[in-house]
Design brief:
The chain has 195 residues and is α/β, with parallel strands linked by helices. The longest helix is centred in the last third of the chain and has 13 residues. Helix content is 39%, strand content 22%.
Amino acid sequence: MHSMSESRLANTVPNGRLIYVIGASGSGKDSLITYARCALKADHLCCFAHRYITRAANSGGENHVELSELEFEQRVKQGFFSMWWKSNGHLYGVGLEIDYWLEKGVTVIVNGSRAYLSEAIKRYPSLQPLLIDVDPEVLRDRLIKRGRETPHEIDQRVDRAMQYTNFDHLLISRIENNRSLEYAGDKILKFIVGE
């Protein structure tokens, strides 16, 4: 995990809402974010932050910006990321553009990392974490159908998911995603628009 400098922390006073969506791989996080993006009306002041990832752009899942490790490290050195972390062998970054959007009073939705949550809260104390919750067996079934991992890797992902379910010490909202995409999609949509 990587914390920001004290001066950067002190200067961050966002006017908009920052929604930090987290969930296990296979929880449906990307699908729900896409659902919300497509369903939001033009009069809602919302921006979905693209992540910068050292992973091929055509690898499936979210619409992200592909960077080489060298490009990523250069952007880290230049301070171009508001947040960044390493997970599953890849580097993930969220650009400083979200600070501009927040200053304009926009609701910003970030596809976050559970392991980075405490650092993200240090950077943005008013951040609103939103956990996409899924039962272990539903998660396992989705990972098997996805077909990206070996049975051993699936076991590891399910075990890791269960390690990150206890956020009781934080003010965290949860959306259960064991049913249809529309069921949880409508809930995340209501959360984003503040209903």
